Amino acid sequence: MKKLFATALLMMSFSAFSNAAVIPENVIAPEVVNIKLKSYTAEDNRATLDVSLYNPNDFKLPVKEMYGDIYLNDTVIAKMEALGEKSLGPRETQIFTVPVTVKPDELTNASSKVMLTGVANYRFKGYMMSPVGEIPVEHQGQLTREQIMAFFQAVLTISQSN
C-alpha cells in the first residue's frame, strides 16, 4: 500500500511539472503589432529592436523572458533574447526593447539573395516566458524593393553614426 501511495504521489508530481509549460486555453497569445530597428552596430554584430506587442487578454500578462529567431527568406539571420520582469497590460499595446545578436554571414547571404531576387520575406518566431507557461509569439511579412533599400540605407546610417 505504501509503494502504491508513493508511486501515485510521484506520478502526480511529474504531471505538475509537465503541465507547467502548457498554456491554458483561456490565454490568447500576444500579437506582434510592429517591429522597429532601434540600433545596429556592425563591429559587435548587435542590434536592438523595439517590438510592439498587443495583449488581447482581459488580464495582465507578466513576462519574464522573450527569445527567438529572426528569419529572412527562411534563413535564420539573428537570435534575440530579452530578460527582465515586465507586464503586458490587459488589452494594451506595449513596446519591448529586445537585444539581438546578428549572424553576419547568414545576413550577408540572405541579403545577397534579396538583392538578386527582390523578394524579402521576413519572419519573427519566438516565445515569451510567463507564469502561465511558454507563449508563442510570431510575426511575418514581405518587404517591397523600396522598403529593402530604405532598410539597408537605415542600417548603414545607424552603423556609421555609432
Which overall shape is indicated by the principal axes computed on the Cα atoms? elongated
Give me the CATH fold name.
Answer: Immunoglobulin-like
**Secondary structure: helix percent:** 25-40%
CATH architecture: Sandwich
The whole-angstrom Rg is 20 Å
- Contiguous helical run count: 3
Number of domains: 1
Sheet with the most strands? 7 strands, antiparallel
Low-confidence stretches: 1-22
CATH secondary-structure class:
Mainly Beta
Secondary structure: number of strands: 7
Strand content: over 45%
The computed structural class is alpha+beta
Strand order of the largest sheet: 1-2-5-4-3-6-7
Overall average residue pLDDT = 81
Distance between the termini: 70 Å
Following the backbone from N to C, one meets helices and strands in this order, namely HEEEEEHEEH
InterPro entries: LEA_2, WHy-dom
Pfam family, one: LEA_2
Domain Water stress and hypersensitive response: 30-144
Protein name: Water stress and hypersensitive response domain-containing protein
Q: Could you give a short description of this structure?
A:
Helices cover 30% and strands 48% of the residues. The chain is α+β, with helices and mostly antiparallel strands.
Written description of the protein model:
This protein is α+β, with helices and mostly antiparallel strands. The protein has one domain: Sandwich (Immunoglobulin-like), CATH 2.60.40. 30% of the residues lie in helices and 48% in strands. The longest helix is centred in the N-terminal third of the chain and has 17 residues. The N terminus is likely disordered.
